[in-house]
Hints:
Blueprint: H1 2-12, H2 16-26, H3 32-60, H4 86-97, H5 99-110, E1 114-115, E2 118-119, H6 120-129, H7 134-141, H8 146-162, H9 184-212, H10 226-230
Antiparallel strand pairs: 1-2
Amino acid sequence: MLAGLCILSGAAAFGLLMDLITLVFNQTVDSWTATANRALAAVGVVLLIATARSYRSSVYGTCLRCGAVHTSFTARSRPEPTPAPRRVRVLAYVGAVAFLPYAAMKMTWALGGTFAGVSGAQTLAISERNGASGVWLTLAHWGIDATVLLAALGVFLILGLVRPWGQVFPRWTLALRGRRVPRWLPLTPALIGAATLAPYGVVGTVYATLGTVGVVTVSRGDFPTSGEACW
């Protein structure tokens, strides 16, 4: 039941990441009421997961912090940071590489180039027409697309989740040397990002595939043709 409620709450929270990005770069959101609803749904997911973990811990005697069963509750030692299993690392590397085509497309526009029949100048004009904030437009004038910066942050997060260096604070941070990163710090953006981007990826892939084979007509939007919109 808790798993089902988590899924429902997660569906209700869909779009929260996009609202946060809009808030950062535009200092506003499309609907404060909808954003508040999504935020409350996300809080609900966290509380439901915490409840499920607490129940599992009481039934199976597992540790709330790590999920393992400790033979002694008086003397615990933290294991040294280790890389994730090879299969998990391969999936993470694939996920990181998957950002590259998008980043290349956006940077092509940011640097004034043309992709899919649309030039950098046109994308800048479209952003201005759609009410982009001064921060967004300033970055664009410098040849930097804001979503590419977010993609780079996503790659950093993906690699940090599977490599030992992601489990501790950087060694050059003297005041925090050797301190471990709290589990919630990388997992929170990772879970929110995955829950938001995975549906976009699945639906978008199916939609683009159907459009490519001619089953559906892809809206051309700001692109010259539907085919270029598919790209």
